[in-house]
Amino acid sequence: MRRKVKEMGRKGSARRASTAEIQRFSLGRRIEHFLLMISVNVLAFTGLPQKYFYTGWGQRIIQLLGGIEQTRFIHRTFALVLVGVSVYHLGTLLWQVLRGVSGSPPMALTMKDFRDMVDDFRYLLGFTKERPRYDRFDYQQKLDYWFVVWGTTIFIITGFIMWFPEWISRYLPGIVIPAARVAHGGEALLAVYAVILWHFYAAHFRPQVFPFDPAMWTGKITLKRLREEHPLEYERIIKTLGTPRDAEAQTAVCSEENEGPPGPV
Questions:
Q1: How far apart (Å, rounded) are the C-alpha atoms in residues 133 and 231?
Q2: pTM of the model as a whole
Q3: ∠51-43-52 over CA atoms, to 5°?
Q4: How far apart are CA 151 and CA 149, in angstroms?
Q5: Which residues of the chain carry a pLDDT beneath 70?
Q6: Is 10 part of any domain?
Q7: What tens digit of pLDDT does each residue of 221-251 get?
């Protein structure tokens, strides 16, 4: 009887450990992600038909949206949303610098990321049985971030040029206007391909999280998943909170209260 009680207790602890959650993304970051997701999708839906206005599907979408002027108005409105999200993100990074937050930025690419990339390829090809040990963000997540930074920068600069061509042509050669149009449309196609082929798989279609990863919506991640996917961050948190059992107990309580402990910045 005592043995059964102990076994049930161990099973219950294992279940709590697998469902205990820790805070990974703040509310501000989740709002950023939501606005970025909405703006990029609307920009693609209203921008690509303008790029391919001579096609049947492009003309039908423009008509569906109320004509070319209405389509441009929607496109520019959500372009301003994207600019606002970018300014806010830069502001938070600057605020961290002014506060004197120590350590390298979490999304900065380092030599370890390149080593992790090589080691991950070796693991996938069967040359090693051990996966790289990742910290708070792995190299795929960092590359995903920098793709967004690059694409958003191109969008904002070229979009501004196309929005105010007469003013821009006063100070820059006229060839800049058509060049910006080509770059803007090309980057739009690249962004759509990157979201479908890279981000969707990395964020939602991987076997570990399929069919959907709720972390960016809830802001939380289970301690079990953190230990498996980001072992270096897990070990750092354990050093802060104590033993794994203490950490699991603390995160389980926070999960029940729907409020996780703060993760690393």
A1: 6
A2: 0.81
A3: 15
A4: 6
A5: 1-18, 102-103, 242-265
A6: no
A7: 998 999 999 999 999 888 887 655 555 555 5
